[in-house]
Automatic annotation (TrEMBL):
<feature type="binding site">
    <location>
        <position position="245"/>
    </location>
    <ligand>
        <name>substrate</name>
    </ligand>
</feature>
<keyword id="KW-0028">Amino-acid biosynthesis</keyword>
<feature type="active site" description="Proton acceptor">
    <location>
        <position position="335"/>
    </location>
</feature>
<feature type="active site" description="Proton acceptor">
    <location>
        <position position="336"/>
    </location>
</feature>
<dbReference type="InterPro" id="IPR016161">
    <property type="entry name" value="Ald_DH/histidinol_DH"/>
</dbReference>
<dbReference type="InterPro" id="IPR022695">
    <property type="entry name" value="Histidinol_DH_monofunct"/>
</dbReference>
<feature type="binding site">
    <location>
        <position position="428"/>
    </location>
    <ligand>
        <name>Zn(2+)</name>
    </ligand>
</feature>
<keyword id="KW-0479">Metal-binding</keyword>
<keyword id="KW-0862">Zinc</keyword>
<comment type="pathway">
    <text>Amino-acid biosynthesis; L-histidine biosynthesis; L-histidine from 5-phospho-alpha-D-ribose 1-diphosphate: step 9/9.</text>
</comment>
<feature type="binding site">
    <location>
        <position position="423"/>
    </location>
    <ligand>
        <name>substrate</name>
    </ligand>
</feature>
<comment type="similarity">
    <text>Belongs to the histidinol dehydrogenase family.</text>
</comment>
<dbReference type="GO" id="GO:0051287">
    <property type="term" value="F:NAD binding"/>
</dbReference>
<feature type="binding site">
    <location>
        <position position="428"/>
    </location>
    <ligand>
        <name>substrate</name>
    </ligand>
</feature>
<keyword id="KW-0368">Histidine biosynthesis</keyword>
<feature type="binding site">
    <location>
        <position position="138"/>
    </location>
    <ligand>
        <name>NAD(+)</name>
    </ligand>
</feature>
<dbReference type="GO" id="GO:0004399">
    <property type="term" value="F:histidinol dehydrogenase activity"/>
</dbReference>
Length: 444
């Protein structure tokens, strides 16, 4: 059966409406996910471990058994054994990826420093950067396993100096992936708990009898995980909304259509709700990509997921020219943008909103997923308009430092008092004035 994928043309009168319908989650799906998540979170908050056990049994088919929550803790010895037992090629690849991710994030840390400066009267002002104490990292595990996401979440936390890194990962039917455990050993995760979904997010946010509440929850996940993170924000920090994967390819028609087809598959295979879109000014080339998609699909092991994803949320879009493609890319604000074109920098300069931008036909998005070095946890659902890739900065916070000299208090005190009286806040004004020698109202 040929693939059903939407074919749009920016010249169509209803193009904008069709594009926004494609970008929006189906409202009913969205609402039903959100209300299911609200109920799970409420229950976890009220009943703690007992609720987490029940939902883990229901969604991942693992009864806690007599051991209760302890059954979900993976001891350090098991992480170390997984690493020791890994085939050499897998261990080598994980270690190479980890080293590259570490180098990139070390560079990021150098950009986020303490600073201070001294004013003429001796007042010192500055900023201090400190790591978070305890973070929760969500590693997805429902429809695929993600050792790469262990590295992408844990390494920046470690580089930032976070002391406690609590990793949650669902293990459907109790099947633990050895590369995931090995990656946790390589990345220096503090504790691994095999729970997932909204119940894991709730446990990390509110704390339970056996899980201490964290300060921030980061990491990607499916629509349930994304909805849960949205809901617990405020009780804890979150990094961003990193939901079902997305790829937008801008192609001038000069790349092998099989390469483009496989790149579209690469994100579609994550999830039925993933989104893969091609923008191209060349109608004949789009037809060749469609032919590649149909020819290559039967050979894909995850063809059922790909078919649903491309059928429901994918599109092949004919645009006027590459300039218009860049404008549409800014509207879509995709998680991943591939610019598969001659002179990709020319077009990249016109794109403002995308989680990660891959330039040129050799920069397949899949390389970024695993081992280039920049983080693969990226904003989805158009949130790249205001969010950034996961980074060292997500695991740090800044404090302002103010050391006012006696001389500084004389001048600043007068300014502050005027503003405070203006706001009707007398105690503020007096607090400043008490430090100003000879100010009216001071006992001299
Ligand atoms: N944006 C990024 O940076 C990024 C990176 C990697 C993966 N991803 C995305 O992460 C997602 C991973 O999804 P996944 O499903 O494989 O794993 P997941 O761990 O995110 O979700 C699995 C959990 O979802 C919950 N769940 C499933 N069906 C449910 C239901 N009907 N009701 C309540 N809870 C339910 C279960 O608790 C289960 O443990 C994919 O969408 C993938 O595209 C995104
Ligand atoms: N493409 C995902 C982010 O959307 C990351 C990933 C991990 N493994 C494979 N892909
Ligand atoms: Zn991927």
């Amino acid at each position: 059966m040929p693939l059903q994928i939407a074919k749009l043309d920016s010249a169509q009168p209803d193009f904008k409406r069709r594009l926004s319908a494609l970008l929006a989650f189906e409202a009913t799906t969205d609402e039903s996910i959100d209300s299911a998540v609200a109920a799970i979170l409420h229950d976890v908050k009220a009943r703690g471990d007992a609720a987490v056990l029940e939902y883990t049994n229901r969604f991942d088919r693992i009864p806690g058994g007599a051991a209760g929550m302890a059954a979900f803790d993976v001891p350090q010895s098991e992480l170390d054994a997984a690493l020791a037992g890994l085939p050499a090629a897998q261990r080598g690849a994980l270690e190479t990826a980890a080293a590259r991710v570490r180098v990139f994030h070390q560079r990021q840390k150098e950009e986020l420093r303490d600073f201070s400066f001294t004013e003429a009267d001796g007042t010192v002002l500055g900023q201090r950067v400190t790591p978070l104490d305890r973070v929760g990292i969500y590693v997805p595990g429902g429809k695929a396993t993600y050792p790469s996401s262990v590295l992408m979440n844990a390494i920046p936390a470690q580089v930032a100096g976070v002391k406690e890194i609590i990793m949650v990962v669902p293990t459907p039917d109790g099947v633990k992936n050895q590369m995931v455990l090995a990656a946790a050993a390589i990345a220096g995760v503090t504790r691994v708990i095999t729970i997932g979904g909204a119940q894991a997010v709730g446990a990390l946010a509110y704390g339970t009898e056996t899980i201490a509440a964290v300060d921030k929850i980061v990491g990607p996940g499916n629509a349930y995980v994304a909805a849960a993170k949205r809901r617990v924000f405020g009780t804890v920090g979150i990094d961003m909304i990193a939901g079902p994967s997305e790829i937008l390819i801008l192609c001038d028609g000069s790349t092998d259509p099989d390469w483009v087809a496989m790149d579209l598959f690469s994100q579609a295979e994550h999830d039925e709700l993933a989104q893969s879109i091609l923008l191209c000014p060349d109608a004949a080339y789009i037809a060749r990509v469609e032919e590649s998609l149909n020819r290559l699909l039967p050979g894909m092991t995850r063809r059922d997921i790909i078919r649903v994803s491309l059928g429901g949320r994918g599109a092949l879009v004919k645009v006027r020219d590459m300039l218009e493609a860049c404008e549409i890319a800014n509207t879509i604000a995709p998680e991943h943008l591939e610019i598969s074109a001659e002179n990709p920098r020319r077009w990249a300069d016109l794109v403002r909103h995308a989680g990660a931008i891959f330039l040129g036909r050799f920069s397949s998005e899949s390389l970024g997923d695993y081992c280039c070095g920049p983080n693969h946890v990226l904003p989805t659902s158009r949130t790249a308009r205001f969010s950034s890739p996961l980074g060292v900065y997500d695991f740090q916070k800044r404090s302002s430092m103010l050391h006012v000299s006696e001389a500084g208090a004389q001048t600043l005190g007068k300014v502050a008092a005027v503003l405070a009286y203006g706001e009707g806040l007398q105690a503020h004004a007096r607090s400043a004035e008490l430090r100003v020698k000879g100010a009216a109202g001071n006992a001299q």
